[in-house]
Amino acid sequence: KQDVSQSPEALSVREGDSLVLNCSYTDSALYFLQWFRQDPGKGLISLLSIQANQKEQTSGRITVSLDKSSRHSALYIATSQRSDSTTYLCAVRHSAPREPVPSTQTADGAPTTSCLGVKETFSIKGFLY
């Protein structure tokens, strides 16, 4: 069974500061890792995914790194904005092991996904003038 954990559980930063969110996983058979955001009352929005053979992916202010040796990924957000205040989740996809099956059935080798159960939230605090 794949276990996924994130830290910190909650984070508060000033608007304009950069921040780092961490994701650790237990299964070495990683296919890819994906980061999502989820605004209150809404569905998941994919931010970035990273393949097992990649070390870093960047899109705009967001960078995702992956270190397979330590089974760790980090989500970096540069120059945070108020609109970044939300819940972030990471999910790990790995290849499912093929189980022996009777000859009358076919083996399904579809990848399985493990998603974090505990949500991680941070808030952006604006400067007070």
TrEMBL record:
<protein>
    <submittedName>
        <fullName>Uncharacterized protein</fullName>
    </submittedName>
</protein>
